[in-house]
Amino acid sequence: MKKDTSVIRFFENHRWLLTDERFEKEANLRLDTAQRSLAATQARAAEARAEAERREREAERKRLEAELARSPAKAICHVFGSYCKQALQVARCESGYRTSAENGQYRGLFQMGSSERQLFGHGASALDQARAAHRYFVRSGRDWSPWSCKPWS
Description:
With 153 residues, the chain is an all-alpha fold. The protein folds into two domains: 2-68; 71-139, Lysozyme (Orthogonal Bundle), CATH 1.10.530. Helices cover 69% and strands 3% of the residues. The protein is built from seven helices and two strands, in the order αααααββαα. The chain has helices spanning 2-13, 16-19, 24-70, 72-80, 84-95, 114-120, 126-139, and strands at 102-103, 106-107. It has a two-stranded antiparallel ribbon. The protein is rod-shaped and about 90 Å long. The mean pLDDT is 95.
């Protein structure tokens, strides 16, 4: 990039070389080559930066997912947002924040039944279970009526 930029700057300062019939052909060829090379290098650099940013975002997403998967309370709050406090109360009552909690057909943090798990998903991690419960919660009208435990009881 430095060489190409240097060549371009040289011809910006010596424009007469581009029109003097003695140097015109060679000067224009070199300027054009430098401009094309610089553009290609800049494009590759932009692609590399974009790829590095994508990898960084993906690594951050994986780190966050791993952290949330290990912490039921953090996962619940991450997924439920402004309903965090209510969701925590329901999950504590339903399962004691245990992802492995079972009561007959009811499983997980929010003790979702087999048909609900089929409809809204499930998973081994707190994050997966919180996401499934949130889908159920949203489908029910952001209402806790499907759960035995209520945040206000």
